[in-house]
């Protein structure tokens, strides 16, 4: 059976790591990588792997979309150009998965709401933030058991894994993640904190999730729900690990996680970047399943 | 050391760093009373709000008795000559908090990053400068970077628009020679019009000595807290520092007796415990661990049976930085499990 053909927009760390994940997929086939710098390492690696490449941005891809049968595109460029990229692609019937902070489409956290987005046939979905992908499944694991008044997440990433885009606009991370912790995670109020740690060797991404429940937490039900959700995320991020918890202290429920990446293109400690590309890949596989009439959920 | 005639700005920490040992529970009345006393004693600059700065209200750092807005409004409405400042840690607070503080009358904003991560402060420093605020870049845990590395980070913050750069000894780890080397390196690369400040902690009893070392290398702003009320073994004790300055002919504009009365009559009575170099605070300074971890480690000791000192040493060994309070309970749980305590 044929695979669903994909284009990668952006030839940086994220786009390149995603390419390796797509190359392993049973239902997806990366056929184009789009960059803006002909000398970029990502484009060179893509050519090595047999992908077609252009350094002329999305404009360089558009004439080939129909002929090459592109059905899904991943945008790993920047929020500033995402809308233009997305509009041009969706006009040609291509589904767009947005890994930028632009968030013009609904937030997608696969184990929480992917099925909902598939049913709604969304033309564009947004992958929130790295901290959001790592923590929102845990907030949801508590909120599906009982009402959560407030959820707060602390994401600690190694300094080496935080690129210039994140650093220039760190408020975007805190605002977007806090919003999605509430709207997708199911807490009435959300807060997000990010810490950069320069330790060497670099530390593996750590995430802490604190939920305050309305009533006394049901310890057995929440523990079961959290463990099931960890297993669900491990299906696409094998290095997603519950280090401690859930800890119960009055109405506080705390979960302590570590997120190691697969080390495809990015180093293993950069679980924060890996969970973004893995979640995007998972989303695309589910979309492809629908296109191929397979049940890949 | 001859610093006679040197004019400096002392910056009070009692109502911000002092929130750490108070678990962020200082009441509005207490805050107003202390601010009035500091103002009358001649303290020119007073920092307020949550110990972890604007937006610090959280499970991770503790929920304060009142909101940032309430604390700022109360103190701004109280002081006659002093200006009010606020701290902002990018990653915790955002430019929205900064704008709110500005609108409520905060004159000085201090944008704080770990000493190697200055480039996360660009949007906040830029906004503060655009709003016409006295804009300070605050490099925390400065013992974890070399003098040359700090100079590069300071230069970045200056480039974003900061008119003052702080070398911040968040762990109370530095000795005077460490301060001298760092302030000298930073002074060398910054423009003459950019001020330099020093923020000390007293975990090795070096608060006053380190502040003097900073002044000698060209710093003109010094942080201190009445009766030392601050994280760990506290900040540089303000009344002691003022007395030393007066003896040395350094001009602070602060009255020695009035400020010692504020410390004795207003600040010591609100302490939940004596601010002193107990074995855990000593460990912070000895091992170079972030000061506000202290009470979290003591609480984890009580709950999980791992001595706070061991927790702090382990956190230091793992290179934990400011803001990682979540790792204290996590580390306690892991050690307790390894030792068969849970």
Automatic annotation (TrEMBL), chain A:
Residues that hold NAD(+) according to the record: 11-14, 161-169, 272
Catalytic activity: acetaldehyde + NAD(+) + CoA = acetyl-CoA + NADH + H(+)
UniProt keyword list: Aromatic hydrocarbons catabolism, NAD, Oxidoreductase
Organism annotation: Crenobacter caeni
SMART domains: Semialdhyde_dh
Superkingdom in the source lineage: Bacteria
GO molecular function: acetaldehyde dehydrogenase (acetylating) activity; NAD binding
Catalytic residues identified in the record: 130
HAMAP family associated with the record: Ac_ald_DH_ac
InterPro entries tied to this protein: Acetaldehyde_dehydrogenase, Acetylaldehyde_DH_C, NAD(P)-bd_dom_sf, Semialdehyde_DH_NAD-bd
Family according to the record: Belongs to the acetaldehyde dehydrogenase family.
Protein name: Acetaldehyde dehydrogenase
EC top class, as a word: oxidoreductase
Annotated Semialdehyde dehydrogenase NAD-binding domain residues: 5-120
Gene3D superfamilies xref list: Dihydrodipicolinate Reductase, domain 2, NAD(P)-binding Rossmann-like Domain
TrEMBL record, chain B:
Keywords, ordered alphabetically: Aromatic hydrocarbons catabolism, Lyase, Manganese, Metal-binding
Top-level lineage group: Bacteria
GO biological process, alphabetically ordered: L-leucine biosynthetic process
Residue numbers binding Mn(2+): 17, 199, 201
Listed EC numbers: 4.1.3.39
Keyword Cytoplasm: no
Main enzyme class: lyase
Protein name (record): 4-hydroxy-2-oxovalerate aldolase
Any coiled-coil regions, as ranges: none
Domain Pyruvate carboxyltransferase: 8-260
InterPro entries assigned to the protein according to its UniProt record, in alphabetical order: 2-IPM_HCS-like, 4OH_2_O-val_aldolase, Aldolase_TIM, DmpG_comm, DRE_TIM_HOA, PYR_CT
UniProt family annotation: Belongs to the 4-hydroxy-2-oxovalerate aldolase family.
Catalytic residues of the enzyme: 20 (proton acceptor)
Gene Ontology molecular function, alphabetical: 2-isopropylmalate synthase activity; 4-hydroxy-2-oxovalerate aldolase activity; manganese ion binding
Enzymatic reactions: (S)-4-hydroxy-2-oxopentanoate = acetaldehyde + pyruvate
UniProt-annotated binding residues for substrate: 16-17, 170, 199, 290
Feature type site, description Transition state stabilizer: 16
Source organism of the structure: Crenobacter caeni
HAMAP family in alphabetical order: HOA
């Amino acid at each position: 059976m044929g695979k669903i053909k994909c284009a990668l927009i952006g030839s940086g760390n994220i786009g390149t790591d995603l390419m390796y994940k797509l190359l392993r997929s049973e239902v997806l086939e990366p056929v184009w990588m789009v960059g803006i710098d002909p000398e970029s390492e990502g484009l060179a690696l893509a050519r090595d792997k047999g992908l077609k490449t252009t350094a002329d941005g999305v404009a360089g891809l558009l004439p080939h979309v129909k002929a090459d049968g592109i059905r899904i595109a991943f945008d790993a460029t920047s929020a500033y150009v995402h809308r233009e990229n997305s509009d041009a692609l969706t006009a040609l019937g291509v589904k767009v998965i947005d890994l930028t902070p632009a968030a013009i489409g609904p937030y997608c956290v696969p184990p929480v709401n992917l099925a909902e987005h598939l049913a709604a046939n969304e033309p564009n979905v947004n992958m929130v933030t790295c901290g959001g992908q790592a923590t929102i499944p845990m907030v949801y694991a508590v909120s599906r058991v009982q009402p959560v008044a407030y959820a707060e997440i602390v994401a600690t990433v190694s300094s080496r894994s935080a690129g210039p885009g994140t650093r220039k606009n760190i408020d975007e991370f805190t605002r977007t993640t806090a919003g999605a912790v509430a709207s997708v995670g199911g807490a009435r109020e959300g807060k997000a904190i990010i810490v950069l740690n320069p330790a060497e060797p670099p530390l593996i991404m750590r995430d802490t999730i604190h939920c305050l429940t309305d009533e006394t937490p049901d310890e057995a039900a929440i523990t079961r729900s959290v463990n099931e959700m960890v297993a669900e995320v491990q299906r696409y991020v094998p290095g997603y690990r519950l280090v401690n918890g859930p800890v119960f202290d009055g109405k506080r429920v705390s979960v302590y996680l570590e997120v190691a990446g697969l080390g495809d293109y990015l180093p293993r400690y950069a679980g924060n970047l890996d969970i973004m590309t893995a979640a995007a890949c998972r989303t695309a596989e589910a979309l492809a399943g629908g296109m191929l009439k397979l049940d890949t959920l | 050391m001859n610093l006679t005639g040197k004019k400096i700005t002392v910056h009070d920490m009692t109502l911000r760093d002092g929130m750490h040992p108070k678990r962020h529970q200082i009441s509005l009345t207490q805050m107003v009373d202390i601010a009035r006393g500091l103002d009358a004693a001649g303290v020119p600059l007073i920092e307020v709000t949550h110990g972890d700065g604007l937006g610090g209200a959280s499970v991770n750092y503790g929920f304060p008795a009142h909101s940032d807005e309430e604390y700022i409004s109360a103190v701004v409405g109280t002081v006659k000559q002093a200006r009010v400042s606020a701290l902002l840690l990018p990653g915790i607070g955002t430019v929205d908090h900064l704008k709110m503080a500005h609108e409520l009358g905060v004159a000085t904003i201090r944008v704080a990053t770990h000493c190697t991560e200055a480039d996360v402060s660009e949007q906040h420093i830029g906004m503060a400068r655009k709003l016409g605020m006295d804009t300070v870049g605050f490099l925390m845990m400065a013992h974890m970077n070399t003098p040359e590395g700090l100079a590069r980070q300071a230069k970045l913050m200056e480039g974003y628009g900061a008119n003052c750069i702080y070398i911040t000894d968040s762990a109370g780890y530095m000795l005077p020679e460490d301060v001298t080397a760092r302030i000298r390196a930073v002074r060398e690369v910054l423009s003459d019009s950019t001020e330099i400040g020093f923020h000390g902690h007293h975990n090795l009893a070096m608060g006053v000595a380190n502040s003097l070392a900073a002044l000698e290398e060209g710093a003109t702003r010094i942080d201190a807290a009445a009766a030392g009320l601050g994280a760990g073994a506290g900040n540089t004790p303000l009344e002691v520092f003022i007395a030393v300055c007066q003896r040395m002919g350094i001009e602070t504009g602060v009255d020695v007796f009035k400020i010692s009365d504020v410390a004795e009559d207003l600040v010591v009575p609100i302490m939940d415990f004596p601010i002193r170099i107990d074995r855990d605070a000593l460990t912070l300074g000895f091992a170079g661990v972030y000061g506000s971890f202290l009470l979290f480690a003591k609480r984890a000791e009580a709950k999980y049976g791992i001595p706070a000192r061991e927790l702090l040493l382990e956190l230091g060994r793992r290179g934990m930085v400011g803001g990682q309070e979540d790792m204290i309970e996590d580390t306690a749980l892991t050690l307790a499990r390894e030792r068969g305590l849970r």
